[in-house]
Amino acid sequence: MRKMNKRGNSQFTIIILVFMVIMAIAVPITGKIFSDLNKSIQNVNGIPDNMKSSFDNASNRYNAIWDGFFIFMLIMLFVGTFISALFTDTNPVFFSIGIVALILMIFVLPFLANTYEGVMTTTTFSTATADFPITSFVMQHYVSIGVIMMASIAIGLFAKRSAVQ
């Protein structure tokens, strides 16, 4: 059986960046749904007060928890990808493919950021966006952050010295 030699590639970074846009859109939408549900529950007379206060407490903490989780996931996915890039053996010939992928990302990331902005600036979700300041900041600077991530991973992938001399 022939052993497959795995080489580094940039598709994983692209998947991370697309996943983060999906998460950045989904979390404020679910936060809005959760907030509206909380308002409805608070107005129902048949629900005990301790359940109302418990749900209100969970609703108030939802935004901060998921906003922090978003930046945590972004940083941890970047660190994990960077570390895996350091341990991946690759040929310097693939550096040109990395440059092409980086240039491609410069054109793709604005579309992803504009998708987020297009969804979140609607009248329905404009208040939900204000509740997630970290996510909003990251998405406003998504192109810069994505390029820095890709460039760092490319440096980690191609600029290491071989352990064997």
Please outline what is shown here:
This protein has 165 residues and is mainly alpha-helical. The protein is built from six helices and no strands. It has helices at 11-43, 49-86, 95-120, 126-130, 133-140, 142-158.
Molecular structure report:
- This protein has one domain (11-158).
- Helix content is 77%, strand content 0%.
- The chain has helices at 11-43, 49-86, 95-120, 126-130, 133-140, 142-158.
- It is elongated.
What percentage of the residues does DSSP assign to strands (E)?
under 5%
Number of domains: 1
The number of helical segments is 6
Mean pLDDT, all residues: 81
Major β-sheet profile: none
Secondary structure category:
mainly alpha
Note the run of SSEs as H and E: HHHHHH
E-strand count: 0
Distance between the termini: 30 Å
- Helical content stands at over 70%
- Would you identify the regions where 5 or more consecutive residues have pLDDT less than 50? 1-6
Radius of gyration, in angstroms, nearest whole number: 21 Å
What does the overall shape look like?
Answer: elongated
